[in-house]
Specification:
Radius of gyration: 31 Å
Number of strands: 42
Distance between the termini: 67 Å
Largest sheet: 10 strands, parallel
Strand content: 25-35%
Shape: globular
Length: 575
């Protein structure tokens, strides 16, 4: 091709010069224009691949040795690194770095490809226009340099939108704690509240194919319960933008200095919606308190009458007030969780890169189809009354009808009940559910399965490559009224439906009571296949709950032989 600056050595151009010297006149005047055309497409074809290579180098190398790259394999050292670091700071660092390099990486790659293809197009057009023996070929209508460049710009915009790895949906809205709900929701003029997001979903401004992004490092109080989404194609994505920690969606009502003395050491605060005595989740109507958090400490001893309040930080709530026993005024800043699922997802939804915490109910729930829940951090969940004196609260709960749901790479901690649950009554069942590569820490139980009502039951469900740590050591472990055997990794009961579940490749490390607790005959249901897991329990811990299962952690081989369970799994007495 020749290097830039030596274009007249190109054979075709040299031939034009010779012809022009014999024919003279008009041909010599056309040579500079031909040179410009040739120079244009050569530059495009040379520079395009160089830019793409720069983008690939950036994408493969910039995320760091312990993280996966932007364009490389998604299964990398980040998992091992996250396990060693508790999936906290390490994962956040990786994600932050990858976010920072994603835009320049894909910009270089796509721009390079577009320039290269544009060069090919310009070269083809130039050849058709070239003078042969002093005559110009007729130019086809619409084929000119301006139309080619306009087409290249349009192609570049389309290609970049399609190739960018994050948030490629067309309708994008941004939410920031410093924004305003009267804004258009652009990145420079974002919305402010979850209430605005909910109204946008109801109106169809946010629908399938849309994206709503919360600013990293900001706090947002309230919840999102989705209606059925408008639109016939695409996925609604909820995620994060900017730099820093995950955006926090919090359910807390946060007390002002508005407590009044009820009697003696008992104080009360009006937590009805918009009472003016608290900040945070001000419009939430529920007064069914799950727990209190003050100065970083969780207080979960819920009582069922004011007369039962006997020790500091025990609480009771009615339809208007929360009552707390304490020797001094509780003051401002007490975070009060109440009964409200933080996210209730419709079908065709992806939720990623968020922090969800501070509710007396569930963190995330769905009975929808085509749902992805990934890379979120969920903690401080549950404790509200479900019925009578029964309390509840799971990290992620799947209701009957859930299908094609992927729950992966989340960190779930400190739940009243279970980290991950699929439960309910009905014939629709649970189909193609995958729980993969999550880290479940200090939840009362790790995985819960139960179903009634017949129908399809559990079909093609897989719990794989998860790390489950310290089941039964949650904030609620010692205040539950139903503690017997509930500090367990695997819980099944009322299993009255078909079961097709595989549990494999997981690490179950430490438990207050046992590895598994099952109702009925106290055995893991036949349709649940458990194999190739790592199970480490402390000395003397029961492998399975109930007198029917006498084996302790030291007798794992006997339990395996008797039950036929956990073939090729590794047991250890440790932790």
């Amino acid at each position: 091709m020749g290097a830039p600056g030596t274009l007249h050595d190109h054979p075709r151009i040299r031939c034009h010069c010779i012809i022009g010297s014999f024919q003279g006149g008009s041909m010599s005047k056309t040579i500079p224009q031909a040179s410009k055309r040739s120079r244009a497409w050569i530059w495009l074809i040379v520079i395009g691949p160089i830019l793409s290579v720069v983008g690939l180098i950036t994408g493969f190398a910039s995320s760091g040795a312990a993280c996966r790259s932007v364009v490389g394999p998604k299964e990398g050292l980040v998992k091992s690194y996250g396990t060693l670091q508790g999936m906290g700071g390490g994962e956040r660092t990786c994600e932050s770095v990858m976010d920072a390099v994603a835009v320049p990486t894909w910009t270089f790659i796509v721009l390079g490809l577009v320039l290269f293809l544009t060069g090919i197009i310009v070269r083809s057009a130039t050849r058709k226009r070239a003078y042969v023996a002093g005559e110009q070929r007729p130019t086809k209508p619409g084929v000119n340099r301006r139309s080619i460049l306009q087409g290249a710009v349009a192609f570049f915009a389309t290609a970049l939108a399609g190739a960018a790895p994050a948030y490629a949906n067309g309708n994008v809205r941004y939410v920031s704690a410093s924004g305003s709900d009267s804004n258009p929701g652009s990145v420079t003029a974002p919305w402010r509240t979850l209430a605005k997001v909910r109204s946008a979903m109801a109106s169809g401004d946010l629908q399938r194919g849309s994206t709503v992004l919360f600013k990293r490092g900001d706090d947002f109080y309230g919840s999102i319960h989705m209606p059925s989404l408008i639109g016939s194609s695409g996925t609604l994505t909820i995620g994060a933008y900017g730099e820093g920690a995950r955006p926090r969606l919090l359910g807390y009502k946060v007390s002002k200095a508005a407590w009044t003395q009820y009697s003696g050491n008992i104080w009360k605060l009006n937590i009805a919606a918009n009472s003016g005595q608290y900040s945070g989740n001000t419009s939430e109507a529920s007064t069914n308190v799950g727990f209190l958090k003050a100065a970083g400490m969780i207080h979960g001893r819920k009582r069922w009458a004011i007369s039962e309040l006997a020790a500091d930080w025990e609480f009771f709530s009615d339809s208007t007030y929360v009552y707390v026993r304490l020797g001094v005024n509780p003051g401002a800043g007490v975070a009060i969780s109440v009964q409200r699922d933080l996210l209730r997802l419709a079908s065709h939804t992806t939720v990623q890169d968020l922090y969800l915490g501070g509710t007396g109910a569930h963190g995330v729930t769905t009975g929808g189809k085509n749902v992805v829940i990934q890379r979120n951090e969920i903690e401080w969940i549950g404790g509200s009354a479900l019925s009578g004196t029964t309390r509840y609260g799971n990290g992620v709960e799947l209701y009957v009808g859930a299908a094609r749901v992927m729950i992966r790479e989340n960190v779930i901690r400190q739940t009243y009940d279970v980290a991950l649950s699929a439960q309910g009554t009905g014939t629709a069942g649970w189909t193609d559910i995958t729980w993969e590569s999550n880290r479940l820490e200090n939840c009362n139980m790790s995985l819960e399965l139960w179903g009634k009502g017949g129908g399809t039951g559990f079909l093609r469900c897989r719990f794989i490559n998860n790390t489950c740590i310290d089941a039964g050591y949650s904030w609620a472990a010692l205040i539950r009224s139903d503690r017997d055997g509930k500090g367990t990794h695997l819980l099944t009961y009322s299993m009255e439906v078909p079961v097709d579940v595989e549990i494999t490749g997981n690490s179950f490390l430490g438990a207050r009571d046992n590895y598994t607790r099952n109702s009925g005959d106290r055995q893991i249901p036949a349709g649940i296949i458990t194999h190739r897991n790592t199970i480490k329990l402390g000395a003397g811990k029961k492998i399975a709950y109930g007198a029917e299962n006498p084996e302790t952690s030291e007798q794992a081989a006997q339990w395996q032989a008797r039950t036929g369970r956990e073939q090729a799994s590794i047991f250890a007495v440790s932790y």
